Amino acid sequence: MKNPAVYFKGLFSGNVSSRSTKVGDRPFSVMVRKEVADHIRSWRFIILLVLMLLTFLGSMYVSLSNISKAVGNAEDPDSLFLYLKLLTITDNSLPPFHIFVGFLGPLLGIGLGFDAVNAEQNNGTLIRLLAQPVYRDNLLLAKFTGALIVISVLFLSLGLLMIGGGLIITGVRIEPQEFLRILCFIVLTIVYVGFWLNLSILLSVVFKQAATSALTAIGIWLFFTVFYQMIMSLVIKAVLPDPALLSPDEVTGYNNTIMTFLRLVPSQLYADGTTTLLMPSVRSLGPLSMEQMSGAIPTPLSLRESLLIVWPQLCGLLAATLLCFALAYQRFMRREIRN
Amino acid sequence: MEAPIIELKGLTKCYRSLRAVDDLDLTINKGEIFGLLGPNGAGKSTTILMLLGLTEPTSGVATVCGFNATKNPIPVKQKVGYMPDNIGFYNNMTALENLVYVGRLNGIAEAEVKERAREMLEEVGLSGAMNKRTATFSRGMKQRLGLADVLIKQPEVIILDEPTLGIDPSGVKDFLALIKQLSRQQGLTVLLSSHHLHQVQQVCDRVGIFVGGKLLAEGNIDTLAGNLFAREPFVVEVTVQNPVPPTLETDLLAIETVKKVLVNDHLLQISGSTGCTPDLVRFLVQKGMHITGVQQRSYGLDEIYERYFETNLNENSSSEKSSGLFQRSFFRKRK
User: Fold this and answer.
1) Which domain holds residue A38?
2) What's the pLDDT at A3?
3) pLDDT confidence bin for A187, thresholds 50/70/90
4) What is the ipTM of this complex?
5) Is B123 within 8 Å of chain A by CB?
6) Which of the listed residues B179, B201, B219 is the one where a domain comes to its end?
7) DSSP annotation of A174
């Protein structure tokens, strides 16, 4: 460091013009780029990726070995949708891919987001980063966008791999409707994982320690996957009258209420959505009355109709995601960032 | 005179009941090196964070380079390079990558950002460790990287929070020399906070002494000394061998030129007007004291600093009697 200031000549006075004057979107894309790079290089993501790949390969193997049986089943109205079958059939040795994702997707989201903000704060990089000309909310948005890009690329490539592999192995042409349905399924999956990602980012803003936020996120996940249903059945037994004493109309009414409560769980929303998208013959997610069923031919629905059924689920997931983001934003914008 | 580059008006920050920064007024002009001196927890870092718009003041306005730092922090952050006291880098990235990232965030063109980062690392003496992960860096290396990090954005103002913490003495010297050189050659304004007064003394044009959220004094070191010791301009310390008789103090105070006497075992601290030393010695000899040493005390930053911090400490332990005087007299002078 001897006599160094000679080198600085011109660095400070002159070429200010080379700087881009527009500030706002450029730092944001730089941050997103860095986030994506960080994720891809991290061991954590590699482990999650391997986990997802194993699930994918396992369920694909099971469905491919059972595909001929499923397609040959003439009683099944969905039997013509070979590629949707690939995603959904199983011989019960392994759950199908979409159920697996419903279970493991939260882990992926939590894994990518649980230390988004608090790790930076503990490392002392947060304050350095925010001393640069960036908006504070851009940081949160960049964290979210970066991880979402990684997730989207992952699921999109898995989906396309599945289609490509199916084309090579079976040689059956893919229907446009099937392709669109699979795309919608991928979008729904991304939204679902995005919800968990956002929840874990929120927790990383709330808690100072990364371990605490990770544990809390996993706790919420476990609560929704394991305990919520148990608590619901307990409450139903305690509160609702015996269905044997009720008229059919009342039973339907109660069932609807129960479903509404069950649908507070994101994984239930996701399961409903994927079932409708991947099994075109599913006409309703709630119970259907005999009048509604009478005269209905067991044929697959069109994509538009399936989408109409899924719409509330998708909106619910998006709303939950937005809510988490808004809370994270609200907590982060005014808080002390020194370590 | 041109407009001040940093202007604080009535800046206040409260954390619940604690007033971390209390009604702070301060102006720093272009090209100045200003030292913010104060003990730990005096509110230095909070002030700096408010300057950058990273913390919202409870009341008051911070203006940097003509922009309101709270309402319009982005242009402020474009012009101010800030090095936090506990600087951290992305451990999984190399020094170069860390620096390139900051360069990009500051809108340096993609074509030149790598080149410039490399230059900066050479300047701060880290060219050898350029491609090492920052996880392996020592404290001193991180500090240097922090300086490169500040300089890469070509700031107009540099704010350094405890920049010399954790660097070895020769490193500190180089570091401060570099800062001074930069400031002189490029007209950079530097605000540095520290509790190491000697280091601050070396480079600062002006210092502000900051205790308990209040700026107690501001000015160059001579002015400070003049202000503070106007009340007791001259102190003689006399060391005696034999025990001090209790009547001696009152006898001493009877002398016209003596204003204050402190007896501390074998040490007598006598404040009086200038040039009373020979009279005092003569008087003490007459009183039969065996004098082993006489010293006229002169005041440097050390004493200034100690005096203020003592004041603060005593105040905290609520024995305000003698020390509160200093503060009160000082406040009268400032206002």
Assistant:
1) 26-286+299-333
2) 45
3) very high
4) 0.81
5) yes
6) B219
7) P
